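thread: overnight batch results

M.L. [08:02]
morning all. the overnight job finished for the chain we discussed friday. pasting input first so we're all looking at the same thing
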Amino acid sequence: METENRVNFTYMGTSYGDVDDDLSAFSECNSDRSGEFPTASSESRRLLMACVSENSDDLIRQLVADLESCSIDDQKQAAMEIRLLAKNKSENRLKIAKAGAVKPLISLISSSDPQVQEYGVTAILNLSLCDENKQLIASSGATKPLVRSLKTGTSTAKENAACALLRLSQLEENKILIGRSGAIPPLVSLLENGGVRGKKDASTALYSLCSAKENKIRAVQAGVMKPLVELMADFSSNMVDKSAYVMSLLVTLSEAKTSLVEEGGIPVLVEIIEVGTQRQKEIAVAILLQVCEESVVYRTLVAREGAIPPLVALSQSGTNRAKQKAETLIELLRQPRSGKAAARASDVSV
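M.L. [08:03]
and the structure it wrote out:
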């Protein structure tokens, strides 16, 4: 599988390649954000005691058995309790997986009952927070049911499915499997149409998956550049950084550069260099540099958009890395351009 260098940051304990900042903007997807104990029932009190107890083994064995009950209500209650046990006590995650919960939970993800499906997805997400469980979950066939939930589930199920796929994608061998299972288009849809959390979770999952070249191609073909540009243009969205980081992976593809230009991305990137934060300016100039390196036509478009003055300012006051990239881009933009290239640039839709 082909993977490529990223902009430099530390994320989930891993260090990546080319911008001096951490990626706190991305969602950590540490656990579900659902409610805790919706009722004061005896089951909830029993679960609360198990969460604080040192020995939850007996309850876990009973809950795993209930997952395969003929009663939808029993399945729903068991999945909800497993979800909360895995959420509230990290050592329970391995115990639950070893007790045989993974396959019956995956079966629940395909349930026709939306709440059962949601609980199944969320329980799998919480189990996937344990590194030792990731390969078991993937090899047990979770990927395709999670993708289906990402397409058709409740809003919470979609968000938690995106997070679960992100967790599974932390194993490199799963990235291609997830992409080939159809995850990229519904992630793009969640990025475009989801709520605040959904957009954040989708961008995080796409960032992880698009280190694989074939997933980059899938993302561009699914129309990801349009929502990325729109989110980068909306400074109130809290998605400028996240979208820019995803875009920085994609613009290594020529078709992504074309789509970026067609979706009006150049003026958005120039505006970020003018008024964005230091981190936003740094990633924006890195993207523009990738776009312009091999294209006189794109250099002409960037120069016409008025990029040189803010680039000069960035070369004087940005981070060290941003200064270097700004200086390199200024040199490219100031190189003589042929009349033929300028004419072609005038024909490009921006």
